[in-house]
From TrEMBL:
<dbReference type="GO" id="GO:0003700">
    <property type="term" value="F:DNA-binding transcription factor activity"/>
</dbReference>
<feature type="domain" description="HTH deoR-type">
    <location>
        <begin position="4"/>
        <end position="59"/>
    </location>
</feature>
<dbReference type="InterPro" id="IPR001034">
    <property type="entry name" value="DeoR_HTH"/>
</dbReference>
<keyword id="KW-0805">Transcription regulation</keyword>
<dbReference type="InterPro" id="IPR036390">
    <property type="entry name" value="WH_DNA-bd_sf"/>
</dbReference>
<dbReference type="InterPro" id="IPR018356">
    <property type="entry name" value="Tscrpt_reg_HTH_DeoR_CS"/>
</dbReference>
<dbReference type="InterPro" id="IPR013196">
    <property type="entry name" value="HTH_11"/>
</dbReference>
<dbReference type="InterPro" id="IPR051534">
    <property type="entry name" value="CBASS_pafABC_assoc_protein"/>
</dbReference>
<dbReference type="Pfam" id="PF13280">
    <property type="entry name" value="WYL"/>
</dbReference>
<dbReference type="InterPro" id="IPR057727">
    <property type="entry name" value="WCX_dom"/>
</dbReference>
<dbReference type="Pfam" id="PF08279">
    <property type="entry name" value="HTH_11"/>
</dbReference>
<protein>
    <submittedName>
        <fullName>DNA-binding transcriptional regulator</fullName>
    </submittedName>
</protein>
<dbReference type="InterPro" id="IPR036388">
    <property type="entry name" value="WH-like_DNA-bd_sf"/>
</dbReference>
<keyword id="KW-0238">DNA-binding</keyword>
<dbReference type="InterPro" id="IPR026881">
    <property type="entry name" value="WYL_dom"/>
</dbReference>
<keyword id="KW-0804">Transcription</keyword>
<dbReference type="InterPro" id="IPR028349">
    <property type="entry name" value="PafC-like"/>
</dbReference>
Length: 319
């Protein structure tokens, strides 16, 4: 039988798994009686751990959320993952989280066993991150948590929004998901006033209080919200757009065309339509050429002219 202190640590480790444990299961794991389990649970409660118990045939013990954060027990892999995650967060895009992450990391590394500290330090010493060409916008963590809670609780949110051209508007939306893309955060929400889905940059959001009422969730605009956001954000800045018919199966072209460069529609088994765009007609012509398939331009004179210029340049280069 384990000593009381060691047994309490093992009991705490078991309770930290996301499930309920019956008294009999815990007694078997700890090699003690169910009475000892009840006494140990009471000791944990006295130490500040919120251990909840439910009665009945399917009842059991589980660790709940408390007013204060109690100490956590981590295995080796979990400890390394936490340390690496904190180090990554220290270089993130959430305002103020850098210092908080470094303080938490210092506490974790201070108590890491030597064998684990060597693994974490090896990752720090022998990995190099490529810096972003420019620092992205910082996001207020309070805004992120407010929006995340509204998504979870299906509560409408009101906020002042500053568009890319500086125009400020008041929005009242149904929030659904937060999407992280690089160093930017986006909110996917349904704007009831405009009757459509919208994507908002979180760093341009200033929430108003109080929020709105609860709402009944709608079907999401896409199964892959990451692709939905990346495509929507990219296409919003296109100055040139075109639709072309590509003489190749849609599934083949979809693998060659990034989501940020356009969309693919099936026409038949051997033909598809591609809607694409770019800041310049030359960039659009380049993307179309990379599809490596025959195509026909439909009513896009800028793209047709750019393709002719590109073809002449390639012809001269080839001699």
């Amino acid at each position: 039988m384990l000593e009381t202190s060691a047994r309490l640590l093992k009991l705490l480790s078991l309770l930290q798994t996301p499930r309920e444990w019956s008294g009999t299961e815990l007694a078997d794991r700890l090699d003690v009686s169910t009475r000892t389990v009840r006494n140990d649970v009471e000791r944990l409660r006295n130490l500040g751990y919120p251990v909840h118990a439910t009665r009945g045939a399917v009842g059991g013990y589980r660790l709940g959320a408390g007013a204060n954060l109690p100490p956590l027990l981590l295995d080796d892999e979990e400890a390394v993952a936490v340390a690496v995650g904190l180090r990554t967060a220290a270089a993130g895009s959430i305002a103020g989280v850098e210092d908080t992450s470094l303080r938490a990391l210092a506490k974790v590394e201070q108590v890491l066993p030597v064998r684990l500290r060597r693994r974490v330090n090896a990752l720090q010493t022998y990995t190099v991150a490529v810096p972003a060409r420019r620092r992205g916008p910082e996001v207020d963590p309070q805004v992120l948590t407010t929006l995340a809670a509204a998504c979870r609780d299906h509560e409408r949110v009101r906020f002042d929004y500053r568009a890319h051209d500086g125009t400020a508007t008041l929005r009242d939306v149904e929030p659904y998901r937060l999407v992280n893309w690089g160093r930017k955060w986006y909110l996917v929400a349904y704007d009831a006033q405009r009757g459509d889905w919208r994507t908002f940059r979180v760093d341009r959001i200033e929430p108003r209080t109080p929020g709105g009422p609860r709402f009944a969730p709608r079907p999401l605009p896409a199964e892959d919200l990451a692709a939905y956001v990346s495509r929507g954000v990219s296409t919003a800045t296109w100055h040139y757009r075109a639709r072309i018919v590509v003489h190749a199966p849609a599934e083949v072209i979809a693998q060659r065309l990034p989501a940020t460069a356009g969309s693919v529609e099936v026409i038949d088994e051997q033909t598809c339509a591609v809607t694409t765009g770019a800041d310049t007609a030359e960039s659009m012509a380049m993307w179309v050429g990379l599809l490596d398939a025959d195509f026909t331009v439909q009513d896009a004179p800028e793209l047709s002219a750019a393709l002719r210029r590109l073809a002449e340049r390639y012809r001269r280069a080839a001699g």
